[in-house]
């Protein structure tokens, strides 16, 4: 008997429309999740797998939590996930107990959140491990390998799922890991975090990497408008694994849900910011960072600040930033 899974990227559940969205965002995530449950039933999957950012915020309104609980309770098989950066305050996975995702896990019997990569879920002859988002991920390739002992687990087909920036090309930012270089003891590695995704990447050593992309179109960029919203059907049989990407019928075309007029404005803003950064960089001779988390980390490193102080600062910024999305 084959073991089957349906894998889907970051859902970012929230109760309000993101900037630039012209349809009803809540109706959209509900329809997509229900289509995923139906696909899982059709293909008789053993479980649904998901790399985190289930919620768009660590602390959603009760109405959003209730709606999410209603939809997740309809899942026809267990759903396994881990904490994404949006699910936890700051980078602090230790604060998972305070989050809406933890509450959702308590309310919905078939949902399990796994934040410890040394404790795999075993289904048939498949071991599935998870690495949540943290300050360590993408540092020296960390995050993409199971952390349980291999000898007694040797006969298992190993899937590893992580919430990190694992990609197939070098991006214009510092913190990422390349599929071409990353070390792993897994047979297949699945990630989210990067919403665009690269689909399926088969490496010459036999390891398969997959990121089908996020479930949702959040930003009004050309990539977000044109990409296919898809899920991955995983089949493991006789020690061999295969992946099939399936487009979601309920996902509306990007042109119908994202306001194109904003794109140009956002691009101009980004361009202006980069120009400004380049200008300061030329004047000061130092690298200029545009991402607030990177700025804080750079300052902390320079000033030798305690990790606790950095964590608090990031939490405060996160709280202020996220106020809008509730
Ligand atoms: Mn995400």
Task: Provide a compact summary of the structure.
Helices cover 30% and strands 19% of the residues.
Describe the fold and architecture:
This protein is an alpha/beta fold and 326 residues long. It folds into 2 domains: 3-255, Metallo-dependent phosphatases (Purple Acid Phosphatase, chain A, domain 2); 261-324, no CATH class. It contains 8 helices and 14 strands. Strands 4-3-2-1-13-14 form a 6-stranded mixed β-sheet. Helix 1 (25-42) links the parallel strand 1 and strand 2 (47-49). Helix 2 (62-72) packs across helix 3 (100-107) and helix 7 (292-303) runs antiparallel to helix 8. The model has no long low-confidence stretch (mean pLDDT 90). The protein binds manganese (II) ion (MN). The site of manganese (II) ion has 8 residues, from loops.
Write the layout of secondary structure elements.
Blueprint: E1 3-7, H1 25-42, E2 47-49, H2 62-72, E3 79-81, H3 100-107, E4 111-113, E5 121-123, E6 126-131, E7 157-162, E8 166-167, E9 177-178, E10 188-191, E11 199-202, E12 208-211, H4 222-226, E13 230-237, E14 240-247, H5 254-257, H6 260-284, H7 292-303, H8 307-322
Parallel strand pairs: 1-2, 2-3, 3-4, 6-7, 7-10, 8-9, 10-12
Antiparallel strand pairs: 1-13, 5-6, 11-12, 13-14
Helix pairs in contact: 2-3, 7-8
Residues 10, 12, 53, 84, 86, 192-193, 195 line the site of manganese (II) ion.
């Amino acid at each position: 008997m084959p073991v089957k899974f349906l894998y889907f990227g970051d859902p970012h559940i929230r109760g309000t429309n993101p900037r630039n969205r012209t349809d009803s965002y809540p109706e959209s995530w509900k329809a997509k999740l229900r289509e995923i449950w139906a696909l899982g039933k059709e293909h008789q999957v053993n479980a649904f797998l998901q790399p985190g950012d289930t919620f768009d915020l660590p602390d959603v309104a009760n109405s959003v939590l209730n709606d999410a609980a209603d939809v997740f309770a309809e899942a026809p098989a267990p759903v396994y996930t881990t904490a994404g950066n949006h699910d936890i305050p700051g980078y602090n996975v230790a604060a998972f107990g305070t989050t809406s995702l933890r509450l959702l896990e308590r309310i919905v019997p078939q949902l399990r959140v796994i934040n410890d990569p040394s404790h795999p879920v075993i289904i048939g002859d498949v071991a599935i491990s998870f690495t949540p988002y943290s300050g360590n991920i993408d540092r020296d390739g960390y995050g993409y390998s199971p952390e349980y002992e291999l000898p007694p687990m040797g006969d298992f087909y190993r899937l590893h799922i992580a919430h990190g920036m694992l990609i197939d090309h070098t991006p214009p930012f510092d913190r990422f890991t390349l599929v071409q270089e990353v070390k792993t003891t897994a047979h297949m590695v699945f990630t989210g975090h990067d919403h665009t995704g690269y689909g399926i990447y088969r490496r010459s050593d036999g390891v398969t990497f997959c990121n089908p992309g996020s479930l949702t179109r959040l930003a009004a960029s050309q990539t977000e408008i044109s990409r296919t919203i898809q899920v991955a059907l995983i089949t493991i049989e006789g020690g061999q694994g295969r992946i099939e990407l399936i487009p979601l019928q309920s996902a509306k075309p990007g042109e119908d849900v994202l306001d194109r007029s904003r794109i140009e404005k956002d691009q101009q803003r980004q361009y202006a910011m980069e120009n400004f950064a380049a200008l300061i960089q030329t004047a000061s001779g130092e690298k200029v960072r545009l991402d607030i988390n990177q700025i804080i980390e750079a300052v902390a490193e320079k000033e030798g600040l305690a990790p606790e102080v950095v964590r608090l600062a990031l939490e405060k910024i996160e709280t202020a930033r996220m106020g809008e999305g509730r």
